[in-house]
Amino acid sequence: MILTKKEEAMLKGEYGEGPEIAMSVLTKLGDVYGADRMIDVENVHIDGSAYGWINDAGLDLVERFCRSGMTFEVPTTLNPASIDFDQWNELRIDSSVAEKQFRLATAFKKMGAIPTWTCAPYQYGANLKYGQNVAWGESNAVAFANTVIGARTEKLGDLADVCAATVGKYPKFGLYRDENRQGQILFELDDLDFRTFTSTDYGILGFFIGTIAGNRVPVVTGVPKNATLDQLKSYCTAAAIGGAVSLSHICGVTPEAQDITDACAGVNPEEKISVGIGELDDTRDKLNILQGGRAEVVCLGCPHCSVEELASVAQSIKCRKLQKGVRLFVFTSRMAKALAREMGVIGAIEAGGGKVIADTCWNFIPMEDSVLMTDSVKMAWTSSQKFSKIILDSMEKCVEVAVGAKS
Amino acid sequence: MTKITIRCNTVLKGIAEGEALVTRQPICLYDSLDPKSGLIINKRHELHGENVAGKVLVFPYGIGSSSSSATILEASRCRKAPKAIINLKTEPIIAAGSILSEKLYGKIIPIVDKPETNPIEVIKKGNLVKVDANAGLIEVIKTEKNSAKS
Fold first, then answer.
1. What does residue A232 show for φ and ψ, rounded to 5 degrees?
2. Cα dist. A304→A48, A50, A135, A371, A379 in Å?
3. CA A247/CA A315 separation, integer angstroms
């Protein structure tokens, strides 16, 4: 890689220990992936923000950076923490975990992070624009930034994201380069009635496309232009978890892909797949584990609910109360929660017996329940070590089950 | 005993030898690997119940979470990391985990990818495998005993 004088000096340790570590990790990564130089990124989203994700090894590194006097060079937002900072105690989070998360928060804030603590920073906290280079972690956020906004980012690994934020740079490879953004596999949607599509259906579609595309860039035709941001969030999240999809070209939605020619840079895609209701039904069956159990815990908000989604939850509850033996957890960001509280939405969910949790991820909440119901494809797919039965259905159906209507 | 040599691309240099653990299924190490024990804990993955510690881990490519790099680093800190990694295509998240391990804990996990023949077809669980990432070579040593295990 060709480095600037300053980058070279950082690498040699002339700026101290912290920049030497960061630059050494980034240049090595750049060398592996054939980057010719570093690019300046305009902002960073740090995935490795939870103690539960980066563990003691990560905490050690972040505190080492902080002690060496490093600050974040560009606006830097944070993914969820291991705790809800306001109600971790009543959620029965281990106090030693909370203590380490507080240490991590102190270090991040001292370095200048924007304490968003959300996995949907594109909805609250981060500012993105079409065509800009950013350096983001969190697979769903990366997929959303590339697919829906048309910003450019690789999917950064935890702690590589912290390194990028401290120097405001990332090696130029992968999705920062035009040739790697070219669509490779075409998905044509047949006979799908998008008028009845819920966010969960968008997730199932994304998951199917992700599993087939693997690490290729999919091109998707037939998605309506009026798909909501929350529906696209669900699609992007599931595509990133079903495969390694950090960019989908949704023709007519993705800014750089108004049609197939745009998406594939004029080259014919190497493979064409038709997607109909049959593929989606099979995918739905794969995501459910032993469907039919009675839900003991209902979880919504993976990724974090927007204000609109929180309002829909409150509306679906319709002033009813949770039935006995069922718990309802709704995960969101502190920004959305504050707005929704002012609207009376949080009060309405709590009056029904639901719990609205901010700053954190369902991953970190102790749950002894064995049957989960969720509207999230990502949670349904990745929570199998926690639950013995998993039921995936729309948010409305999840709420109906929680408040006691027949499933 | 037979010996097979496969040429491949060097992702991260180093030489290591160990028993192979092989999967055809892409893997997200963050939600599949417990870094404190080395165990694969994801019930949805075919390696569920296996331990990666000290093994040569063969998988097509990494998927899903950004956290997998920190998972590899923590596994290195806890001495439960794989000895080497063989991929069809190595995702930057996996490479970042190995780079951090070397930089912060001096633990080298060599990685190779783009092998000239598909190692998932050739290498069986329990085969003794030497990864020479400096030379870009995988050596598979099959004995009757460990071939029978597959």
1. -70, -35
2. 16, 15, 20, 21, 12
3. 33
ipTM of the complex: 0.91
Instruction: Number of helices (H) and strands (E) in chain A: give both, helices first.
Output: 15, 14
B44 close to A (CB below 8 A): yes
Chain A residues inside the 8 Å CB shell of B104: 21, 57, 60-61
Residues of B whose CB is below 8 A from A154: 92
Q: Strand order of the sheet with strand A371-374?
A: A355-358, A327-332, A297-305, A371-374, A389-392
Cβ-Cβ contacts under 8 Å between A and B: the total is: 130
**B65 is an active site residue:** yes
Question: Taking a C-beta distance cutoff of 8 angstroms, is the pair A279, A208 a contact?
Answer: yes
Site from A24, A55, A134 to mutate, B interface, most B CB atoms within 10 angstroms: A55
* Catalytic one of B65, B66, B68, B98: B65
Residue A281 structure tokens: 């039904």
Per-residue pLDDT of chain A (407 residues; tens, 9 = 90+): 999 999 999 999 999 999 999 999 999 999 999 999 999 999 999 999 999 999 999 999 999 999 999 999 999 999 999 999 999 999 999 999 999 999 999 999 999 999 999 999 999 999 999 999 999 999 999 999 999 999 999 999 999 999 999 999 999 999 999 999 999 999 999 889 999 999 999 999 999 999 999 989 999 999 999 999 999 999 999 999 999 899 999 999 999 999 999 999 989 999 999 999 999 999 999 999 865 678 999 999 999 999 999 999 999 999 999 999 999 999 999 999 999 999 999 999 999 999 999 999 999 999 988 899 999 999 999 998 899 899 999 999 999 999 975 44
**How close B89 gets to chain A, by Cα (Å)?**
9
Q: What is the CA angle B107-B113-B117, rounded to 5? A: 135
What structural domains does chain A harbor? 5-177 (3.30.499), 182-286 (3.40.1010), 288-402 (3.30.499.10)
Chain B residues with CB inside 8 Å of A218's CB? Answer: none
Classify domain B2-148 at the CATH superfamily level.
Phosphohistidine domain (3.50.30.10)
- Annotated domain spans of chain B: 2-148
Distance from CA of A160 to the nearest CA of B (A): 7
CB pair distance less than 8 Å for B67 and A154: no
Question: Within an 8 Å CB–CB cutoff, is residue B33 touching chain A?
Answer: no
Q: Is B93 on the interface with A (CB under 8 A)?
A: yes
Q: Which of A24, A56, A138 sits opposite B66 (nearest CB)?
A: A138
CB contact under 8 A, A139 and B65: yes
